[in-house]
């Protein structure tokens, strides 16, 4: 397994659709995604903690007129999404290897249109609350890099994380058009997902867990 990981890391260093430390452009891409990589002015959507990038590549197939960037710190995971994008000639896909809390190092204000947060680590321990990707400090960061008309989309199987997120959002006065369902697959919002499922989503759904989903915009 370690040998496979090392092989993937080596391949990542050669792949043009992966931005990671020590590669050309990694430190300079902030504010330049449209000009230096995508070579268009189309909207940029992020998938945060993207894992294998199922939503990044899945949405890119459905929306060739938009750009998609999967963000994750695990290089052996984004290898899979990168490979799919290359194999399918998805030129509207990129992957960024970094920690989510460093997002502002790679995007200027308003550079991002939409953000997807799909099945993040629920961080159930109290000491880890600030590390939850829907905690106030992360939401403040998303708002800064996003355009106002963009959407934040959030999916989880974890009821505790979902309830926590709703509490955080209820304390804010800068969101609008909040849509909520505790059972995505029996809701009016299911068509927005185009049948795309992450690895964790498939696993939990097959075990009978209901999938929680919400989306909102900024005021």
Question: Can you characterise this structure?
Answer:
This protein has helices at 2-14, 33-38, 54-62, 75-87, 136-145, 159-170, 199-206; strands at 18-19, 44-48, 67-72, 93-97, 114-118, 151-156, 175-181, 212-218. It has 219 residues and is an alpha/beta fold. It folds into two domains: 1-16 and 35-98, Vaccinia Virus protein VP39 (Rossmann fold); 113-218, 3-Layer(aba) Sandwich (Rossmann fold). Strands 1-4-3-2-5-6-8-7 form an eight-stranded mixed beta sheet, with helices on both faces. Strand 3 (67-72), helix 4 (75-87) and strand 4 (93-97) form a beta-alpha-beta unit. The radius of gyration is 17 Å and the shape is globular.
List the helices and strands and how they pair.
Layout: H1 2-14, E1 18-19, H2 33-38, E2 44-48, H3 54-62, E3 67-72, H4 75-87, E4 93-97, E5 114-118, H5 136-145, E6 151-156, H6 159-170, E7 175-181, H7 199-206, E8 212-218
Parallel strand pairs: 1-4, 2-3, 2-5, 3-4, 5-6
Antiparallel strand pairs: 6-8, 7-8
Helix pairs in contact: 1-4
